[in-house]
Amino acid sequence: MSTDSTSVEVRAAAARRKGIGLVVICTALGAAGQILIKIGADRLVHPTLLSTFLGFFTIPPLFAGYCLYALMTVIFIFALKDGELSILYPIISLTYVWVAGLSYWFFHDTLNWAKLAGIVIIVTGVAVLGKDAHK
Fold first, then answer.
1. Pure H helices in 1-135
2. Structural domain boundaries of the chain?
């Protein structure tokens, strides 16, 4: 193997790791956005299409939650530049894990055996895909 092809492979591997890192950041932003959207939605007195639309501009947590979604989308674009969609997109499912934990923490949602089993399945699935990506 030549030095040039080795350096190309090293750069490609670094770009893949960067993409995975960016997607992990996306999962945290998406989860934080969901929590803020829930907080904002709880402030809607009688949710209708119009009040929800107006609430987007007048309820700061609702607005902030959607701004985090927008930021997440932009970061995901950068992650996709050098990454494989079939590897990166399933990592987004880790957002559900974050949301479950944050919902337990902020809203005192229950974490029963079914939710915990689902979390284990999601994490295991992402780990299996990640292992496959190293081949």
1. 3-42, 49-58, 60-82, 85-91, 94-107, 113-133
2. 3-133
